Amino acid sequence: MIGSKNPNSLYDSILVGTDQGRIYILTKLTGKFEKFFEAHTGAVLALKWDRDHVCFASSGEDGTIKIWSRSCMLRATIANNKSPIYSFAWGHLNSSIVCTDALNLTIKPIQTSRSSISWRAHKELVLAVDWSLTSEKIISGAEDCKYKVWTEEGNLVYSSGTFSFPINSIAWAANGQHFAVGLFEMVMLCDRMGVSQCDSQLSSKTGSVYALKWSGDSSTLLCGTGSGNIFTGYIFDKVASFGSVEAKLADQHRVLVSNPETGLENQSVEWRERITNISVNSDHLILLTISQCCIFKMKSLLSPITIELRDNDYLVIQSEKYFMLVSLGSLEVYTYDGRLVMRPKQLQLKSSLLDPKLMTLNSEFLAIRDAEETNGNYSIINFDVVQSFTSWRLAQEKT
Length: 399
Hints:
Number of helices: 0
CATH topology of the largest domain: Methylamine Dehydrogenase, Chain H
Keywords: WD repeat
WD repeats: 37-69, 119-150
Domain IFT80 second beta-propeller: 240-384
Helix content: under 10%
CATH superfamily of the largest domain: YVTN repeat-like/Quinoprotein amine dehydrogenase
Distance between the termini: 42 Å
Protein name: Intraflagellar transport protein 80
């Protein structure tokens, strides 16, 4: 079992679990195992960093979920089930974990003072589960050959039809707009409500798809199969629109732009690097690549202004005068001529803030609502974009 890497670590740590119950820490810088330790009795079945990459959790054949510090010290054991825990996912604010439990799904709080939530999810053994931060929905797959979408309270949103093979893996994209489902020699792409959008039949003798991992920009999917092969998939036909303006990602290097009001129809905008994200308003088109932010004027769509990026997992939010790029490591506000206006260093960006519904930007202010409530209230932080300081902080009562 190979866990997710930690992008904030200097050495780009990778977790590796074995069938003997050990967890190894591999550093990308040296390509060597830094350390290992005994974690479970029996095989390690799942490994995941928390959403802020502060600690990680593991589950195993022994029916336990354990939380470990970055120095591999045991912090807590939050589950001790009778059956193996095949899959789990971190929840909102890293305050809970949803895990498989035979035919059930169970949400285990990190704090022992809170009670668990459990419900019957499938008629056969549940093999896979994931939890989206942005869509606030849980997805599951099982040996009954179905996948399902749930609310965080355990209410059923969608149930698929019965397939010919068990659902071995399932994974939300980071943006919460779609998820992938893996089964025997096939991968499916579904929208956030669960409806299948397309499927890809893999070559014969690849076996079942046991692992799925999205890139941080939600554009690329890695699939690990029973044969040991790894497949890469890309999302095409993504559409960004504003009023009558529409930009469509035609392939990895090309965007088609249309505006019926100006007579513009499928004008091609091409870029040498792979395009990971697109955003548009009435005056500007923004393309994000793996290393650059490209700003095009809608009037010409020629000679873009480029900004070098330190990360490639960015959320883009546009306003009339400014736009901002948000990642787990930074928040930056720019003018459309590429000038940096603001980079609030006092703001501690957690994964819970990487949600466009919690941010808004106009010509004067940037407002961010904290996803974490305190005593029933949410905090709203308002930044003056021009003066680049925090103008006020408002406590909003939860409704």
